[in-house]
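B., you asked whether I could sanity-check this one before it goes into the benchmark set. Here's the sequence:
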Amino acid sequence: MGLDPTLVEQIIQKVLKELSAPEPKTRIGVLALRKDADIAGLSGLLPQGAELVCLDDGSSLEGADRLILPTLTCNAMADLAIGRASDSVMESVLALLLAGQTVEVLDFQYLGYEKTAPHALYDLYVSHEKTLSGFGIKRFETETEDTLVSRKRLITEKDVAEALAKGAKQIKAGAKAVVTPLGADFARNHDIEITRE
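And here's what the prediction gave me:
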């Protein structure tokens, strides 16, 4: 029993369409009011061309690739650690955490007091950070030279080879990304780890 040429052609056309589709723009949800967020500073830490959406932009944060909280104050951190929101921004953060979303924090305010705070007080905030990590709050991660973030829906051998040429040791792919068998083989043969976000 041979392959149906029509089916093979449909599969080829679908793969070619996926490969030629423009890469979707990275959408970043900024958990702050635009007037309070350092957009210029934040833009320098994110992938070039990323679309930044703040809480007061009138646009939903739904479907954002990443959710970033620019600053987590000591007061807000203590409140969140017991499941309480101290203001409207923290209410949004808490709602996202309850919905199972991950929130990245750019600056934990308590870290600035490491040299001056009494050890017991500083350790309290360290324990709050550990508690919050269990809720889905984590430290902001910039893309390192050895990690390449791919928003492509299909990762091919060519994509892995390009990552290797850039010196990447890891490719972070989207949860629904498909890695071709040749791409997976190339990654394995060149010690490149492909992980899912």
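One thing to flag: The two ends are 40 Å apart (CA to CA). Otherwise nothing jumped out at me.
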